[in-house]
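Design job #97: recover the sequence.
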């Protein structure tokens, strides 16, 4: 939640009109509990989504995450009809099976560091390109998994996608 990539992307989303909810999974930072192998983390995302849309029927929700959180968020966002779009920062291809993305029909923005240790820009481009789906990949030259020294480029990618790219259609600014 307090990683700079998450914080800066949340700022960019707020800049373009989103209300943003950030949280840590159990056992991360000062949150209590322990890692649940993915299942309890998916439950946490589902609960957060339920909470944020409960009093706002018709809300066009965006579900996103960073690193492992992107994998969890994508799984939940793909199956939940309230999620109208998806965001993945630092997709960790080497840490799991992402074949579930083959059925994505929702707009998805993937922002990837060119030198990401868990999935380079080339690796993610090859994977995403093979899916032939509504996925926009923005590669950040010189960046690692955490986007160190490239936070401005990360923010620009998020802002541009939702102001002038496919995200502008899925989430029109009122």
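Job complete. Output follows.
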């Amino acid at each position: 939640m307090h990683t700079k990539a998450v914080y800066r992307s949340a700022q960019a989303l707020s800049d373009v009109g989103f209300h943003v909810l950030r949280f840590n999974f159990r056992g991360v930072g000062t949150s209590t509990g322990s890692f649940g192998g993915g299942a309890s983390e998916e439950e946490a995302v589902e609960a957060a989504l339920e909470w944020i849309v409960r009093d706002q029927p018709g809300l066009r929700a965006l579900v996103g995450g960073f690193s492992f959180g992107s994998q969890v968020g994508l799984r939940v966002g793909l199956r939940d009809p309230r999620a109208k779009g998806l965001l993945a920062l630092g997709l960790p291809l080497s840490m799991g099976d992402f074949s579930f993305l083959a059925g994505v029909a929702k707009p998805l923005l993937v922002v990837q560091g060119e030198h990401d240790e868990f999935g380079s820009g080339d690796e993610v481009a090859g994977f995403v390109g093979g899916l032939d789906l509504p996925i926009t990949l923005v590669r950040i030259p010189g960046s690692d998994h955490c986007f160190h020294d490239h936070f401005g480029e990360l923010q620009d990618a998020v802002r541009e996608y939702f102001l002038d790219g496919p995200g502008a259609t899925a989430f029109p600014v009122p």
